[in-house]
């Protein structure tokens, strides 16, 4: 989708947007998070978003991936990815084809962005693009930086202090805190041993909605909002209705998908089961150490992937050359145009860590204004050392 700020804007940066899941279609991003389109849940008619859209100022490329997600399909089970290595092979091929079809984008700044499980996809793809750019015979992709929102980049960091967080919010007692902390320690041990089956069972046991440890201890059926046990993160009915919306013949015609079935993502999740507990921290550190711009944004009330998980991730990134600077840094207060506090921002060279007040797991949807303001400021900022 091209920037709506000016017709034919030739200078707007290009943003690649990826939803997470795994198995969540990036059309959800178009229709409920960062795109300019919404839909009426009763009539299934499209309408313009009444909140800031990322396409207001930027060109945004939305890709359904891994293969089997949304309108991206595989003819049989062998086509489903089982690892980030396989995901990035497919994604980079699509990425290359896009630039071959639209070579004008070689001249525009490029940012790779995504939410939740895309906290793995984004750094993996960024490193792949970086590596490709080191080849002298290759036309350079104009990669400037990456953005992750509530990224599931490093599962061990995500769960390391969840028990304390839930206790401090009054959601569990000391006994419940001890149970959750025990699981986090087993997860860390299994991760160190690369015992991925044990690790994924711990994660599944914690958050399996109505049968998991979180539900048993707190009654929460969703993990998107620490203040609401039932919040699905998006407007009521979105998850159930948006597949029906995109499957309408007129919508399928408009996005040129022919008779391709719309995948619900379950096969994608199953194929990537053992990828769930694996970390992409080393890929993120590679991007940081090569002076790319990095924005790590978290909604302050995301129950599982809030700001504390990003702080744990960065503090455990021992190979990050600016770790000492980060640990000595001080955050600044973010205010909107009315002077109201909307969040906090820490800057260390090209790394920005943003915390958005009121932001749930789907912060671009529930606090779109502050998220978009931070994004614009980040992209407008000069890169240091590149």
TrEMBL record:
Give one GO biological process term. proteolysis
Record keywords: Oxidoreductase included? no
By its UniProt entry, which InterPro entries does this protein fall under? AB_hydrolase_fold, Peptidase_S10
GO MF, one annotated term:
serine-type carboxypeptidase activity
Which keywords, in A-to-Z order, does the entry hold?
Answer: Carboxypeptidase, Glycoprotein, Hydrolase, Protease, Signal
Q: Which Pfam families does the UniProt record give?
A: Peptidase_S10 (PF00450)
Which family, according to UniProt? Belongs to the peptidase S10 family.
Quote the protein name from its UniProt record: Serine carboxypeptidase
The scientific name of the source species is Notodromas monacha
């Amino acid at each position: 989708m091209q920037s709506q700020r000016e017709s034919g804007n030739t200078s707007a940066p290009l943003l690649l947007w990826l939803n997470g899941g795994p198995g969540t279609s990036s059309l959800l991003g178009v229709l409920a998070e960062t795109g300019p389109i919404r839909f009426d849940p009763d009539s299934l008619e499209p309408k313009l978003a009444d909140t800031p859209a990322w396409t207001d100022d930027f060109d945004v490329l939305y890709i359904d991936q891994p293969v089997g997600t949304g309108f991206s399909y595989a003819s049989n089970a062998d086509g489903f990815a089982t690892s980030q290595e396989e995901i990035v092979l497919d994604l980079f091929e699509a990425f290359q084809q896009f630039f071959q079809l639209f070579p004008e984008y070689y001249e525009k700044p490029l940012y790779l962005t995504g939410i939740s499980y895309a906290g793995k996809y984004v750094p993996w793809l960024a490193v792949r693009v970086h590596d490709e750019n080191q080849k002298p015979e290759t036309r350079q992709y104009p990669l400037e930086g990456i953005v992750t929102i509530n990224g599931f980049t490093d599962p061990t960091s995500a769960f390391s202090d969840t028990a304390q967080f839930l206790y401090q919010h009054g959601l569990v007692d000391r006994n419940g805190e001890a149970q959750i902390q025990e699981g986090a320690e087993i997860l860390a041990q299994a991760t160190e041993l690369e015992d991925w089956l044990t690790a994924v069972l711990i994660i599944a046991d914690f958050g399996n909605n109505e049968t998991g440890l979180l539900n048993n201890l707190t009654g929460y059926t969703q993990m998107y909002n620490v203040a609401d046990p039932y919040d699905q993160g998006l407007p009521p009915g979105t998850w159930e209705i948006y597949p029906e919306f995109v499957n309408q013949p007129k919508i399928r015609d408009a996005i040129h998908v022919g008779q391709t079935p719309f995948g619900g993502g379950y096969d994608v999740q199953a194929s990537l089961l053992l990828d769930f507990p694996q970390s992409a921290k080393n890929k993120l550190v590679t991007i940081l150490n090569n002076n790319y711009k990095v924005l790590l944004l978290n909604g302050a009330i995301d129950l599982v992937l809030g700001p504390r998980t990003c702080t744990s991730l960065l503090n455990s990134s021992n190979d990050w050359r600016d770790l000492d600077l980060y640990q000595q840094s001080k955050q600044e207060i973010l205010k909107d145009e009315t002077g109201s506090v909307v969040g906090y921002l820490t800057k260390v060279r090209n790394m920005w860590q943003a915390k958005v007040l009121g932001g749930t797991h789907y912060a671009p949807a529930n606090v779109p204004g502050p998220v978009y303001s931070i994004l614009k400021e980040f992209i407008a900022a000069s890169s240091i050392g590149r």
